[in-house]
Structure formats: C-alpha cells, structure tokens
Amino acid sequence: MTEQKRLQRAALIVAAMSSFLGPFMGSSVNVALPSIGSEFGLGVIQLGWVNTAFLLAAASFVISFGRLGDLFGRKRIYTMGIILFTISSVILAAAGNGTVLITMRVFQGFGSAMIFATGLPILMSVYPSGERGKALGITVAAVYLGLSVGPFIGGLITQQLGWRFVFWMNLPAGLILLTVLLTMLKGEWAEAKGEAFDLRGSIILAAALTGSMYGFSVLPSLIGALAIAAGLICFVIFVKYELRVPHPVVNISLFRDNPVFAFSNLAALINYAATFAVSFLLSIYLQRVKGFSPQTAGLILVAQPIAQMLLSPAAGRLSDKIEPRTLASLGMGISLVGLALLVPLRAASPIGYVLACLIVLGIGFGLFSSPNTNAVMSSVERKSLGIAGAMVSTMRQIGMMFSMGVVMMVMSLIVGNSEITPSDQANFLWSMRLAFMIFAAMCCGGIFASLARGKLKR
Known about the structure:
The protein folds into 3 domains: 185 residues, Growth Hormone, Chain: A; 51 residues; 208 residues, Growth Hormone, Chain: A, CATH 1.20.1250.20. It is 80% helix and 0% strand. The protein is an all-alpha fold.
C-alpha cells in the first residue's frame, strides 16, 4: 500500500468515526433524557435545553472553526475538538446537577463544531476529485449508522447501567480517534495559512445564528419572533461587513459567484428542515396514538436511517460519474413523495403503510445527501475546503432547528403545551398532518433549488 493510500485510509477512518459519533451521541442522549430528568428534577423545557444548548453551540461556531482550520491547520483544530468533546463528555458523565449538565453540553457542542468543521475538509484534502464521492458516501453512511443504532444501544445502556454511561462511552471513542490522528494521519492541511482571521465577523455571525436558531426554538412566542428579527438584522450586518474585509470568515463571493455552492447549500438546508422532525412526530404518533412501546416504535423508525445507510455509499460513488444535481434532485423528489404519503396518516393507518413511507423517505435522503455534499465540497478551491465543510454542517444544524421550530409552532397553535392524551389525539393528528404538508411544500421548493445549481465543473 502506498503512503498516499495509507493517508486516505486514515482520513476515512477519522471522518467515518466522527461522523458516526455525533449522531450516535445525539440519538442516545434523546433516549436517556427521561432518566436524566427524573434524577435532576428537570422539567420539559430544561430537558429541551440539554439538546438545544448543544445544537446552538455547534451551529453558531462551526463556520469560524472551519476558517481557523484553513488558517492554522485542519488536523490541529480537529484534534483540539476531539480533546474538548471527550473531556466535556467525562464531566457530563459525572455531572451533579442540571446546570452543570447544560453548561457542559455547550462545551461539547464547541468540540463537535471543531470536529465537523474540519473532518470533511481533511477527507477532501487527501482524496482526488474522482474518488471523493465514494469516500463521502461512506461517511454519510456512518451518520445513518449512528442514527440507527443510537436509540437501541443508548436505551440498553441507560436501562442496564444508567444514563451516565451514555456519556462515558465517548471516552474510549475519543482515545481511539486521538490514537489514529497521532499515529496514522500524518501531515497537516492549512491552504489559507498566512491570511488574517476575521474575529469581528465571526462574532457577528455567531450572534446571527444564535438569535435565529434560538428564536425558532421558542416560537410562536414574542421572544422567539424578536430573536429571529435580531438574528436576521445581524445577518444583514454580517454580509455587508464581510464584503469590506480583505480576509472574511465567509467569502460571500462563494454564494454570489458560485451557483453550485450556493444552491447546493440551500438545497441541504431545505432537505434537513423538511425531514428532520419526521421521526419526532412519528415517535409520538406510534407511542401515543398507536400505543406501541418505545422499543417497538424505535424498531419501526429505524427503517428510514437503514435505507439511507444502505443507499448512501452507492449514491456517493454515482456522484463521481453522474452530475450531483441529477441524483440530488431525484432524491429531493422522492423525499417529497414520502412526505406527501404521510399527509393522510390516520389513527387506523396500518403499520406497513408507515414503514413504506419511512423507506421512501430513507431512499430519498440517501440519494440526496452524498451527491449534494460532493457538489458542495467539489465546487470550491482547496483553500476554502474548511469553510465548505463548515457550511455543510451549519446547513444541517440550522435545518434541524428550523424543522423542530415548525413542529413546535404548529403543536403550540393546535395542541398547546399539554401532554398528548387520548382526548387530544384528533388535534395531534391534525397538527402532524399540517406539519407534513408544510414539509412537503418545502421539499417542492427544494427540487427547484437543487436543479438551479447548474453543472459541477470537475
């Protein structure tokens, strides 16, 4: 095996493991939340912040860490991220109250931002353009594998050993990643070395993302609307400021002059926003309307990520040969079909129908994600790979927050803040169907965004 092949294998191991770790951690923590709430006496809102704090920290700073990786070395930032993620996980495992737990989830989010901002760029730095799709397909499959096994392993560990061991699992995983980084992944990548870091722009961007995402998390309250308005104002200020500085944290010309990059990111944002909350809604539907146990509901919901996991590597390989916009647009269209099929869901709908809808959605997202990511990463110069990788992660995080924001807004307007009981089933079903209608309409717009990107110049 040549030295280049060894380097590619090491980069793929690092990218795949970290791509698995994040979704696995998130889905495992979701299962552990009720046990955490019981031990610390946390209410629903406080439990929600256990996840929201992580998402806000990760999404608000991932672009800045991507730029720092371009400037000072992607491997260096990635290594720091693994260390911070692992240390914060250990402190989370030993947390004595909810305040420490939520605070350390913020630091865990910072570590996650460092990891996801630099993992993909490292992978893209060592693979030639004709082989990137295959490597990206494997890393995307690792994401879905983490989503698939997380609820089962997390639930098993929480039940048998306690919720703290969900966080303890990150210690050996972090040590393994550090070993691979230090012994196998030789070299450093900093194509923008010597350029200045735009600290002021990074702060404005963080304020814009934090305000917007926090606002969506508390809609339809007045505070939520004001936070979104403040976030949008900060976005306008950020764009105007970035156009004036010589070395911006985000090169606005990437969006203004590179339609493949701009529309691929927009398509990713729409796709995540339209699909992320589906499992949340169906989890409530299966347990509160159909009366299934959490374990049975999990077995049903796993159909979607398994379909995604099985299809992503093949879709990634195809995107090296077929225009990514063709595959991604087809995937967005299939996702639209899956969402449209969920709209007429009733209390008496057979489980086979729900499974079929989930498989269709999994096929759609599996066809979309790898080719779309390949398009984003292959549309920029090497020195901008860090920003491109960070944008992929940012679009995912913003889409996830927006998806949940839509659901919570619809639920608040129709169901209210009460727990779903048999008397509320009709209202819940109506709100669920309305959310699916909104998501289907978003996917319809996403098809046009995906097609509008144009052809990728290889």
